[in-house]
Amino acid sequence: METTKEELYKNILEKRQRISAFAEDFIFIFDDNFRVRYSNAHAAKHLGCCQSEVIGKPLNELFPSDSYRTIKQNLQTVLSSGDPVFSENMIVFQNKELLLDSHFSPIRERDAVTGVLFISRGSTERRPENYIN
């Protein structure tokens, strides 16, 4: 029996939920249409909602335009190249700017990249005031 995209995401989510339930990182899984398939509680809280409200939302509804463009560009790079991407960017969560170290990793179904695991950790507190990116 062939595994559907939804079944694949469900299996991934079950495994990730156990790991990410208590993580203080921002964890998302985006599909190839830039919709959220998973968000941990920490990330949802910073978006001002609960996990169930984030699932299924498109990227552009979650972040302001500058943050949206930055995240989308990294997602597109991973989806098209199949290679992971690391970036350090200012991302806005509910009008609060956070400097994040972000890892974008491909999720593969057979030989195709069908989604992206996006994990970010705040690095604002590690930077000196005069840091310029």
- Structural classification: alpha+beta
Report the CATH architecture: 2-Layer Sandwich
Q: Encode the helix/strand succession as letters.
A: HEEHHHEEE
- In the sheet with the most strands, the strands line up as 2-1-5-4-3
Number of strands: 5
- Report the portion of residues in β strands: 25-35%
Name of the CATH superfamily: PAS domain
**What is the class in the CATH system?**
Alpha Beta
How would you name the oligomeric state of the polypeptide chains in this document? single chain
* Radius of gyration (Å): 15 Å
- What summary fits the major beta sheet? 5 strands, antiparallel
CATH topology tier name = Beta-Lactamase
Tell me what you see in this structure.
With 133 residues, the chain is α+β, with helices and mostly antiparallel strands. The chain has a single domain, classed as Beta-Lactamase. 32% of the residues lie in helices and 33% in strands. The chain contains four helices and five strands; from the N terminus they run αββαααβββ. Strands 2-1-5-4-3 form a five-stranded antiparallel β-sheet, with helices on both faces. The radius of gyration is 15 Å and the shape is globular.
